[in-house]
Fold this protein.
Amino acid sequence: MDCKKIRKKLSSYLDNEVNLDQKSKIKEHLKKCKACSYQLKQLRQIQSLVQKIPSQKPEPGFYERLSSRLSEKGMSLKERLFGWGYSWRLSPRIAIAASIVLILSVSLLYLWRSSSISGVNIEVFQKEYIYYSNEMSSFAEESVLPVLLEIK
Amino acid sequence: MSFQNRWRTFLKSFFMVVFFLLGIMTSPLLAVEPKEILSLSLEAQFQLDFEGIKKTQIYIKEEPYTVIAKLIYQKPDFSCIRYLAPPRIKGKIILDDGKLRIDYVPGMDRFHIFPSLNSPEARKRKKQSLNLIFGNYIISQLPDEYMCNRPVYVILLTPKHAGNPWLKIWIDKETYLSLKQERYASEEKLITSSAFTEVYFGIMSFREELYSTIPPRLWEGKKLPSRRIIRSFEQLREEITFPLSLPKHLPLGYEFQRAILFNEGKRVDLIYTNGLKTIVFSQNPKINVRMRDYHEMSFKGRRGRLQASMGVWNLVWTEKGRTFILIADISKEELTKIAESVE
């Protein structure tokens, strides 16, 4: 295996997610290749740093309080959180129709965007015209031409 | 009276008559030709340190519109225009150091940069366009006058072709600076009158102070938009990425000056002039040009949008996937003829 393939698998190797054959090939490669060994070393450092980050837990009794508040409304926590999912499962026709509408909308938006063209104000061209006039005319009104657009 | 005295009186009278006649004969040779006065006036601002207040009245609408600006010229190539009135443009400043022309409106924080109009190339172009004026106008000199307590030449430019403005220019006899200019639509109808009300020679404002009115964040590191100048259609065809369209008809006296290429050859502006007025024909990739107060018009199977703005026509149409913009200060009939002749 070349370095490119090895580096793709380094993360899996670190997590013990590669088969034995691959594992031995990677090991062999790492013995010879300093660059890939350095890459593995970096990955190990990142992993250890991530592990050191303390996990944040909610305050004691958070889930209980949330559950009791939801039950006050007459629904279980699961129903409240995944209510939409339940309704979709109950009516697959609505789900299919919504998907079609979504696909059509995205396609139309794409078509509109690709056919639409950029817009420029005529003033941009008028400004250039005034500059050219000032530049070309021997007796241009040099103090008036630049303000023609402002005073119109 | 003795013979000697008579002879002396005769000689005295004879020489007086001879000198008088010689004076009459040589005075036209010594006087400056009106064409030369105009040529010298083009370069005058670059040979002076000068400050003045210029008042311009525009008679396009019912009531004249007045613009007042302070103009500063510093030799060899610096100029500044600072607007004092009307209130909506008060404070606007245009600074040109011979390399860049900066246009800044403080209240709106609007900032634009252009190539200098005081550079040697720009001055050369003005001289070329003066030659066009000599071809398209009859130049005549009127009796001298006084302006701001200074003697001035008065030069009249009468158009040879219909549809072009008349021009009357008052030029300072000592410095050749143009102190007043009047532009007429016809012999009688005045369009603009622009004159210095105060002039001060030999005065120099500090440039740093003038530049300090523009916030550095706006112009530090700013570069000119890339534009290439091409002077022949042959070279232009080699450079552009689309088939070139050209008008077959131009009003009398107009000539192609140059083409400006933008966006790596995707857009080109063709510039025509008769020395005093300019026609720009811009060819762009298909774009949506936003306009207000326009009306639709048809010409030679094409549909375009026509808008008039301060006496200048803007005609926009799209054809074969490209957008064309024709801008000119000419009659509607001439504009239509040009648009119809585009091939």
Q: What stands out?
A: The longest strand of chain B covers residues 190-201. Chain B has three domains: 1-29, 34-219, 228-340. Residues 118 and 124 of chain B are 10 Å apart (CA to CA).
